[in-house]
Amino acid sequence: NISALRVIRVVRVVRVARVIRIMRFFRELRMMIFSILGSMKSLLWVMLILAMNFYLFGVIFTAATTAHLDGVRLWLSDETEPLRSSFGTLDRSVLSLFMSMSGGNDWGSYYEALRPLPHFYKALFLIFVSFSVFAVVNIVTGVFVDCAFHASQQDRDIMVEEELEAKKAYLISMRDLFEEMDTDEDGCMTVEEFENKLDDERVLAYFQALKLDVSDARTVFRLLDNNGDNEVNIDEFLSGCYRLQGESRSLDMKIMQCEVRFLQENFATIASTLTELKEQLSEQLSLPSTA
Description:
Strand order of the largest sheet: 1-2
Membrane topology: Multi-pass membrane protein
Number of helices: 13
Protein name: EF-hand domain-containing protein
Largest sheet: 2 strands, antiparallel
Shape: elongated
InterPro entries: EF-hand-dom_pair (IPR011992), EF_Hand_1_Ca_BS (IPR018247), EF_hand_dom (IPR002048), Ion_trans_dom (IPR005821)
Number of strands: 2
Order of helices and strands: HHHHHHHHEHHHEHH
CATH topology of the domain at 26-161: Helix Hairpins
Distance between the termini: 87 Å
Structural class: mainly alpha
Keywords: Calcium, Membrane, Transmembrane, Transmembrane helix
CATH class of the domain at 26-161: Mainly Alpha
Strand content: under 5%
Domain EF-hand: 169-204, 212-247
């Protein structure tokens, strides 16, 4: 069924145009996903470094707490309850250090819990907080930014491949359109065939889906006809439509370029003619003087 095939062609063109728009719309989302996936390896190393940091300081604070609370009376005292609940065991110490660094709890409360211990351990806790917040966190941020940069580079490579695939699909759609407009199937399209086919709503749907402004049929045909033989073959049609795709501003720019090229050719012809006339006039004026 020829009508069904024509409908399928129109649907294919619309689908290609939609894929191109979606591909550009979701670029930021895709780059964020690539950044997250690309940073997983770095995240594992960061977690290992933090675990070693928590374990080292946790052992120090747990040992100091158990040594200070040596005895049942001090261990069960209400005054040492904050110290016992925060640093009484290794797992509690690691959890308290993690919460103080990540914002799960105010690090000032853990600093107050260390008050029964010597000043050395309170100063050591401040060193831990400073090291974790100002050193480790900034380094981790830099690692993730670097991963995001590499993901952006990877995304650009993917974008290039997708643009090539989109161009390939676009040219296939335009080839179907040319076959639709070439009524006599001689491989070339005249301006009459072009104008007649623009009256067909299905052909207009092709051009509208591909963002081609064909409001002025003869001007568009003249832009497609590169060699000026009043016929457009498949190669001229594909290359011309690919250059003209976009909003109407692109078409206006192409019209201006064509007109400027026409003026340049005319000016060159006029300049050559004036040069010849000048030489002839100089020869005519020089004849009486030589005689």
